Amino acid sequence: MSIEVVVPTLPESVADATLVTWHKKAGDAILKDENLVDLETDKVVLEVPALENGILAEIVQPEGATVLSGQVIGRIEVGGVSADIVAAPAASDVAANLPAEKFSGSTEALSPAVRKLISEHGLDTNLIPATGKGGRITKTDVLNYMKSQSSNNVSNTAAPTPAPVKAAKAEQMPILPTSDRAEQRVPMTRLRAKVAERLLQAQQNTAMLTTFNEVNMQPIMDIRAKYKDSFVKVHDSKLGFMSFFVKATVEALKLYPAVNASVDEQDIIYHGYYDIGIAVSSPRGLVVPVLRDADLKTFAGIEKGISDFGAKAKDGKLSYEDLSGGTFTITNGGIFGSMMSTPILNPPQSAILGMHAINKRVMVENDEMVIRPMMYLALSYDHRIIDGKEAVSFLVTIKDFLEDPSRLLLNV
User: Fold this and answer.
1) Cβ(286)–Cβ(189) under 8 Å?
2) Is 383 a catalytic residue?
3) I need a surface site. Which of 149, 192, 324, 369 has the fewest CB within 10 A?
């Protein structure tokens, strides 16, 4: 009996998807729930698992194809396959294709995707830190190990010559030849194209301005230094800066509702809730998961939410639900060392807050020069519905809350 591999139902806002990667070839044995295909949409990468054990009898749609909801992309011949049958040959293939001195450790507990990566790149499993259940090596472990080796210019094995990069691959950067004046043309990924579209939309369809201020981070740093250990013990989460910024932003939005509003043609939509988008860097590019009902969350709830977003973004597990909506966005270029920048609006939102690097600077307090850890803040806003005075006052309010964070706890 054969069954069809079909594209899962896509959300209404997503017209189609790109078939990024087939993890199996026609004729390969597969196990139920094993990931067969990666599909890239404008926002996320979807995995299509096998519904039954069997053989991948046919690949109907190749890598790089544009596919629709419910479209058949492959066929599986069901039956005659067990976990032992799939794992044993794959393990022996890995060992056979690698020099003995370059490979050690058993591959029997590794998933097919992990075995494939180890085989292709000639990796030693004993050198890869394992974070999976029972000390198993996951695909993410292998990718992180390869990235660390690349960034440190360390090579434990003679790596094979890299194959040409397929344009549809979302997490790979083109590898240019070493010859002078090399060039390589690759199409944008769907996510990159969508980001470009939205940035142009923001520039062309809004009256965007930016106002700047600076904040003394010493009070928050003192609180973190005093309570960070007990915070982790009680809440099992680190106490970062973002929870303070989210809390201060929400309180400022309550005072200036236009900053939490959006424009819909000739109407202004004022939102009675506070869904804060947190810009996160992922292997595929910048994504903005949404922290919903941020006004109802505690410091610990905010920190856990942001931490979960970071982990999901790293593993490519963010869902449409995570990325949909949002009434205001916060982006932190400071983690990359940015001193000052102008963030671009995230339509249809009317404002975005930019955080930057913390640097010690000489400041004047009570007519005396003191050294303080300072951060520049930037608020980009849509001048069509937010006046300059309102924008400046909103940013000053955030600054005041951050420099006296006890107000966030007392709601004054």
Assistant:
1) no
2) yes
3) 369
Q: Specify burial of residue 335 (Cβ count, 10 A radius: 0-12, 13-18, 19+).
A: exposed
Calpha distance 21→137 (Å, rounded): 21
d(CA 355, CA 332): 5
What CA–CA distance (Å, rounded) separates 324 from 317? 14
pLDDT for the residue 54: 87
Give 141's pLDDT tier (boundaries 50, 70, 90): confident
Any idea which fold 191-410 has? Chloramphenicol Acetyltransferase (3.30.559)
Q: Does residue 346 contact residue 202 with C-beta atoms inside 8 Å?
A: yes
Residue 172: predicted pLDDT: 53
Higher pLDDT, 145 or 132: 145
Model confidence at 82, pLDDT cuts 50, 70, 90, reads low
Whether residue 40 contacts residue 65, with contact meaning beta carbons closer than 8 Å, is answered with: no
In this structure, the strands spanning 72-78 and 66-67 are unpaired
Q: Which fold has domain 2-78?
A: OB fold (Dihydrolipoamide Acetyltransferase, E2P) (2.40.50)
Is the model's pLDDT at 99 over the cut of 70? no
pLDDT for the residue 367: 93
Among 222, 229, 387, 404, the one annotated catalytic:
387
| Cα 323-255-373 angle, rounded to 5 deg | 75
Which residues belong to CATH 3.30.559.10 in the chain? 191-410
Residue 28 has phi, psi (to 5 degrees) of -75, 145
Which has more pLDDT, 184 or 213? 213
Query: Active-site residue among 84, 383, 400, 404?
Result: 383
Structural tokens at position 405: 């964070």
pLDDT surpasses 90 at 191: no
- Specify whether 222 is catalytic: no
pLDDT for the residue numbered 242: 94
CB 182 within 8 A of CB 277: no
